[in-house]
Every structure is written in structure tokens, then in C-alpha cells.
Prior knowledge:
10 helices, 14 strands, disordered C terminus, ABC_transporter_ATP-binding
Amino acid sequence: MEPIISVKGLGKTYAGGFTALKNVDLDIQRGEIFALLGPNGAGKTTLISIVCGIVNPTSGSVIANGYDIQRDYRLVRSEIGLVPQELATDAFESVWATVNFSRGLFGKAPNPAYIEKLLRQLSLWEKRDSKIMALSGGMKRRVMIAKALSHEPKILFLDEPTAGVDVELRQDMWEMVRELRESGVTIILTTHYIEEAEEMADRVGVINHGEVILVEDKRTLMQKMGEKELSLHLPEPLDKVPEILADLPLTLSADGSQLVYRFDIKSSDTGITEFLRRLNEANIDFRDLHTRESSLEEIFVGLVRGKHAESEQQLTKEAQE
């Protein structure tokens, strides 16, 4: 299936010389939820801004739903909805007026029934006559989403959409995101709440220092790069890891009551059998055990740190040469 967004060789260098994006290639599939992760300053917002036509690229191309973002700018914008990080709305307008006006900006004919459906879906119908300035932060965020969806786009960008939103509203919003995906909208989100990406996304992309360093199916990524922990709770605390276990990947808790064994889930030999055999030889009993897989956040942090270390090594090598 042809991707709904295809980014090829995309680069962006600003007038001051700062390079925000470096030769980015990225395909986003129709109907998926794609999470773009990266630390602050990694290039996430620049990438989104280029695809949405807000920032001009220095090099490369972007095709969105069959249209070139530079050659077919107006057609591309009609296909895309954007919820930016900043809450930018007319404070003195009503909810109904501001959402209806956004639809008109894209040349769409008035459709009160659609706007009503949208406001109900976002739990804004009871606030339709309220001024934006009178709404809570969470409700203002919902208005931003309503504005982005007012012209019925095929692609929706959510740039840190739940920033400043309380837990209950956040859960409601993610339920809405699922419903949008089911209706055929492709969703690209950036978030600092990595557990949300872990729960919601079909695929994950990691960007760092302007480069996309990994794109992978979420489940495959966690299987490939995840680590598991086997935790043993000891009835009698240990002062230190016994000599017979010293060469194993073990950690002893500060109070000596827990041994944690780490192993690679993709390895054919996890070493657990050998670990348990040595425990028996050392006469170490345990009263409980459980396993835990690495979270997406731990994998993400590991990837970013690894890439940073590689960059430092490369710079050191170049300096020596």
C-alpha cells in the first residue's frame, strides 16, 4: 500500500547555520497511529512544520496523500489538521464560532451537523456558546483539536497534545484518537508521555539531532531491543552477591532483600536455568519471583544515549585524525 506521507532526503538548515534536519527519510502508512519520539531540540516540531507547510525545507521532498507539499500547497493543507503545542485561539470568540470559522478558512461549505458531531465527540457541546477565555486548559486543548478537525482532514498531527491536560481528560482524548483512527484518519503524534506512545502507537520513530535513527513496529521494537528482569524476593537478606553468582548480570537491592537477574529476551539462551542452578548450590531460597519487560521509555533512552555516544566517538576520531 502506498504511504499516505512519504518524506525523502529532507533537510532543514536555518539562516543562522543551525541544521535541524539531516537527510530524513520516513514513510507513514495510511490509517496508522505513528508516534515520533525524541528529546527536546531533536527536530520533531521542525519535521511536522515542514510537512504541514509552515516551514520551507532546505532540501528533499514530501508527498502527503498524493500531493507535493511545495507544488500543491493548498491541496496538501486541506488534507492535514494540526494541533500545535501552543494554545492559540481567539479568547473572545465562542467555541462554536472559532471551530466554524476554522472550517471556512479551508474553503469548506458550512456544515452545522458535522460541527455539532465534532463538538459532541470532544465533550464540547455543552460549552459551544462559552468564550474561549472562560475555558480550562484541558477544554482549550479540546477546542484546538476541534479546529484541526473542522475541515475533515485525512491526516492529523498532534504535537504534544496532552501537555497540561489532567489524567481524566487525557484518557478521554486518547479514546477519541482511537475513534478517529477507526474512522480512517492517519494520526502522527509527538509526546513526552512515552507510556502513551507505548499504549497507543502502531509504529514508533525515534529522532535525535535531526536524524531519524529508528522506525519500527512498536511490538517488534520491544521484542528486538527489550530486556527482561527476573526479580527474586529473598526471605533472608544478603549482605552482597555471593561469589558463585558474581559473574552473572545480577543486582542486589539496597536492603539485600531482592536479587534482580537481567537477560536478553531475543537470546536463545537466557541463562535462567544456570542462574537457578547456582542459587540452589549456594543454598539461597526465595519466596516470590516475577518478570518485567523493558518499557518503551527505557528502550528510547537507551537508543538516544547510544546514538549520542556514537556521535562523540566519531567527533573524537575526527579530531585525532
